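To close the chapter, one final illustration. This time we ask the reader to focus less on the individual chains and more on the assembly as a whole: which components sit near each other, and how the overall shape emerges from the parts.
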Amino acid sequence: MAIVVVGHKNPDTDTIASAIAVADLWTKRGMEAKPIAQGEIAPESAFVLEKFGFSAPEVVTDATDKQIILVDHTDLSQSMDNLEKGEIVAVVDHHKLGDVTTPNPLEMWVWPVGCTGTVIKAMYDFYGVEVPKNIAGILLCAILSDTVMFKSVTCTDADKKAVDELAKIAGVADVMALGMEMFKVKSAVDGASANELVFRDYKDFDMSGNKVGIGQLEVVDLSMLDSHKEGLQAEIEKVKADGRHSVFLLLTDIMKEGSEMLIASDDVSVVEKAFGKAPEGKSIWLEGVMSRKKQVAPNFIKAFEG
Amino acid sequence: MAIVVVGHKNPDTDTIASAIAVADLWTKRGMEAKPIAQGEIAPESAFVLEKFGFSAPEVVTDATDKQIILVDHTDLSQSMDNLEKGEIVAVVDHHKLGDVTTPNPLEMWVWPVGCTGTVIKAMYDFYGVEVPKNIAGILLCAILSDTVMFKSVTCTDADKKAVDELAKIAGVADVMALGMEMFKVKSAVDGASANELVFRDYKDFDMSGNKVGIGQLEVVDLSMLDSHKEGLQAEIEKVKADGRHSVFLLLTDIMKEGSEMLIASDDVSVVEKAFGKAPEGKSIWLEGVMSRKKQVAPNFIKAFEG
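The assembled structure is written out below.
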């Protein structure tokens, strides 16, 4: 049976592109592997896959009796059902180390860079396997997406170098034009329900025993969301009511380089604890904050610790 | 403040050599680092360090306010005190993934090979840093030690290749002669107390909520231990009485390629569950079993799960 390669729930472009690329690399290393996803792909990913000639990975959510490679996550809450009934043989990631454990030794490639795609590019080089042209294209888009076209504080020189090299392989002459095209697809909000928007890029965390959800919408201009805010606020209140302590939704303006955060919480004081500034009503402007992973989740984790 | 590089409690040669080598590599990558240890080094490690001109790393056990690189472990029970009050910036290991988590992204190099030293050799190559001659010597010894001179089931082709390359750098002409010399030092039991022998290479595990200790003594001939067995049995009973469900001591004959396991347990049936064979009295012969990590700990973890 082929090894399955899987990213986190609510797949984004990095999770999808990484699953496809790692499955290719493992297969070429002599261990047959196939990419899967834990859910339907988002519009941005659909645009990227179509552009480079891939179809969406099959949706599979149960790990029982499977050999598994985790990409782009190491948190149980973001992973497959019954993970302990499968066997994790490898992990490729760029996040904090989560609570996944294994009974057996495994292979792990984890770097503190902006995107799993950057790690995977280095792995192809390490194993002496050529990156296929179309895989270079999707990895390139994954890095542009995760680093918000190099503007995120998570972006490193390694990410920029990987994009340079992948663009040459993929034959992409204007990387930034491709990035803008992709972000316009990602930003498209009209026609989407509030529920779809909240879960477009959403993660649940366990913070000192509290279930906390953080979603993020990145737009090229925040005013695009003006007519949606009321509906989004109502939606996160509903999500919070379903067993969570708090749900936060980051509305990130990638041009202004900051985020408005909508708040639904049992205890709003965690926001001031996390950011040193009290919210006005149910939202707060966070200047310079673009990264959930590096600028938002760690602050809340500390705030919940005390 | 320099980053500290630390291996597991009850340091063995892999943990000590890996801490020294990773500190060297990180420093040469421009991030000053120094090796430390969680306890006094064992006779085998003292022999290896002296042979290649190193002194034992300083003993430090508290992680508070330190930047830390973990080598050769990812289990909280095997790591420093107050680990959550320090910041883990990297992990280099070859074991199962344990319960250490981090609030921030980090660098991880974990491979399913016989020794952390093998991973570190690849890291030097990856970063284009030359392995110093004396560090090649201690990494080589670490691999010979962890793989029981290539006889352990944990040994892979990558370990053998690393030894070949490290031997050339270190100028070691007869690798197996060096290995035998090292194992004779390791096997020396006369003059050591039962307590010293039990803890020479000992680890505590959390198995489904039960604290379980597993120690291992490797000797070139099991009969060397005949006069010690009674004292060792009494000693593991004492260690078990200190809040543990079970303590097992593997007496591994590296020439016969098998282990006699001494047993102190609240429920001896876990041994039969783990190995499909009932012990005779308080010990059992396990043919072909030489690796705690791959042939013993996983079996007990499963046995304790039900």
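The domain at 194-305 of chain B is CATH 3.10.310.20 (Diaminopimelate Epimerase; Chain A, domain 1). Residues 13-28 of chain B form the longest helix (16 residues). With these observations in hand, you are ready for the problems at the end of the chapter.
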